[in-house]
Write a structure and sequence with these properties.
By secondary structure, this protein is α+β, with helices and mostly antiparallel strands. The chain is built from 13 helices and 19 strands. The strands form 4 sheets. Strands 1, 8, 9, 10, 11, 12 and 13 form a 7-stranded antiparallel beta sheet that branches. It has a 6-stranded mixed beta sheet with strand order 14-16-15-17-18-19, sandwiched between helices.
C-alpha cells in the first residue's frame, strides 16, 4: 500500500527525519494561508497524487510569493496529471503540499527496501538524485550503491558511515547521513514498510541534510498491526475495478494492454504476462485467483474483464491442484458468459485437476472458447486472434 508524500512525512517526523516546514492544502485559500505562515519564504507547491514523475508533468511548482503560491494551487487543484506512472488516464489532483524551499548544494538519492533477490532489507544510494535516477541507474549501474542489512545485527553504524562516504560525502555529512539511515531503518522495521525512498535527499551549503521528497509503501499483509497506517489509504486514488475485485478477494490490477487475463497464482500470472509480451501483445490486467475461490467469484472476475472496453481477446490460464479445480473456473466463466455474453475471442488453457471436465463444461454450455494444451500455444492463439503485435 502506497501513501501520499505528506502522509509519509507526517509518519517519519516521529522518527526525527529532518524536513522542511510545510502543510497540506485542499483549497486555494488554505494554500495562501500556509504560504503566509511561512512568512513569504520561497515555497514549493506539490501536487499530491500516488505516482512518481510529478515534476516532469508540471505537478511541482516553485513560488516566490503568497500570490504565486495561490496561483500555482489554483492551477493544480482539480487538474489531471499524466506521468509515466499514472497511465494515459492520469490522476486528479485533490490536494497540494506547500513546503518551504530548501536551497540545495547537492541532491542525493537514498532508499531502503526489501531486496527480494537477497531476501533481506537493503539500502540503495546514489551521489546524484532527482527524477532521472532510474535512467541513471540503468545507464550507469555502478553509480547506485547497495548495502545489505543483516537482520540479526541490524544496521551497523560503521557500515552505515562507510556507505554514506561512498556517496561522496565528507566526514561530517557522512556521519549525519549514517544517523539518518539509522532513523529510517528504525521506521522501516517498526512500521512494516516495504519502501522508504528519499529523492532528493538535499545537502545544504551549511552541511545539513533534508528529506525533500519521500515515497513510502507498506506490506499490506501487516496492516492489521498498524490501524493508523491502514486508515491512511486514499480510496479515491484506487481504481474502482480493483476495489471491487478486492471485495471478492481477487487480486487485480488494470494494465494498459488489450488481452484480458484470468490466472490462478501470482507466479503463473506473471509468467503469463511475460509470454504474452514475448508474442508481441500486451495484457489488459493482472488477475490472480486465490486457491479457495468460488464459482460466483470467478464469474465476477470474468465480468470485470468483459467490462474493459480495451479488451480484444481473453486468455484464461489455469492450473488445477490442491483445493482449486479447473471445473470451478469453467463453471464461473460459463455463468458470466450466460449473463453478459461474449463478444471477443476466448482462449483457455487448463491443466491439472479436472481439466477435461472443465473443457466439457464450456463445450456443453456452448461457450465459444478455443482450447490450448500449453502456455506457448495459448499465447500464440490469443496473439493471432488480435492480429499479433500491437
Amino acid at each position: 500500500m502506497f501513501i501520499h508524500e505528506y502522509q509519509a512525512k507526517d509518519l517519519l517526523r516521529d522518527y526525527g527525519l529532518p524536513m522542511a516546514r510545510g502543510g497540506l492544502a485542499r483549497t486555494v485559500d488554505e494554500a495562501g494561508e500556509l504560504a503566509r505562515d511561512l512568512r513569504g519564504s520561497p515555497c514549493v507547491v506539490k501536487a499530491q497524487i500516488l505516482a512518481g514523475g510529478r515534476g516532469k508533468a508540471g505537478g511541482i511548482r516553485l513560488a516566490r510569493s503568497v500570490e504565486a503560491v495561490s496561483n500555482a494551487a489554483a492551477e493544480l487543484l482539480g487538474s489531471t496529471l499524466v506521468t509515466a506512472q499514472t497511465g494515459a488516464r492520469g490522476k486528479t489532483v485533490k490536494a497540494v503540499y506547500i513546503e518551504e524551499k530548501i536551497e540545495a548544494a547537492r541532491e542525493l538519492y537514498l532508499a531502503v527496501l526489501v531486496d527480494r533477490g537477497a531476501g533481506q532489507v537493503a539500502f540503495l544510494g546514489a551521489a546524484e538524485g532527482g527524477e532521472d535516477i532510474e535512467e541513471t541507474a540503468a545507464r550507469e549501474p555502478g553509480k547506485l550503491k547497495r548495502l545489505i542489512v543483516d537482520p540479526n545485527a541490524g544496521l551497523v553504524a560503521d557500515e552505515a558511515r562507510a556507505f554514506a562516504a561512498s556517496l561522496d560525502l565528507g566526514e561530517e555529512p557522512a556521519r549525519s547521513a549514517a544517523d539518518l539511515m539509522a532513523r529510517i531503518y528504525k521506521a522501516f522495521v517498526a512500521l512494516d514498510a516495504s519502501l522508504i525512498e528519499i529523492n532528493p535527499l538535499v545537502l545544504t551549503g551549511a552541511g545539513d541534510l533534508f528529506a525533500v521528497d519521500v515515497k513510502m509503501s507498506f506490506d499490506a499483509n501487516a496492516l492489521f498491526r498498524h490501524p493508523r497506517i491502514a486508515d491512511l489509504r486514499d480510496r479515491d486514488e484506487d481504481d474502482p475495478e480493483e476495489v471491487e475485485a478486492a471485495r471478492y478477494e481477487i487480486n487485480y490490477v488494470r494494465l494498459d494492454g488489450d488481452i484480458g487475463c484470468m490466472v490462478n497464482g501470482a507466479g503463473l500470472a506473471l509468467a503469463t504476462i511475460d509470454i504474452l509480451k514475448q508474442r508481441g501483445v500486451r495484457p489488459a490486467d493482472f488477475m490472480d485467483l486465490r486457491p479457495v475461490i468460488t464459482r460466483q467469484q470467478v464469474a465476477t472476475g470474468f465480468k470485470m474483464i468483459l467490462r474493459n472496453p480495451k479488451v480484444k481477446a481473453i486468455l484464461v490460464n489455469i492450473y488445477g491442484g490442491g483445493i482449486l479445480r479447473c471445473d470451478t473456473i469453467a463453471e464461473g466463466i460459463a455463468a458470466a458468459v450466460k449473463e453478459d455474453g461474449l463478444t471477443v475471442p476466448l482462449v483457455v488453457r487448463a491443466a491439472g485437476t479436472n481439466k477435461e471436465i472443465a473443457r466439457k463444461i464450456l463445450i456443453g454450455q456452448a461457450i465459444p472458447a478455443s482450447f490450448a494444451d500449453d502456455m506457448a500455444e495459448a499465447a500464440e492463439r490469443v496473439a493471432a486472434a488480435t492480429g499479433g503485435a500491437n
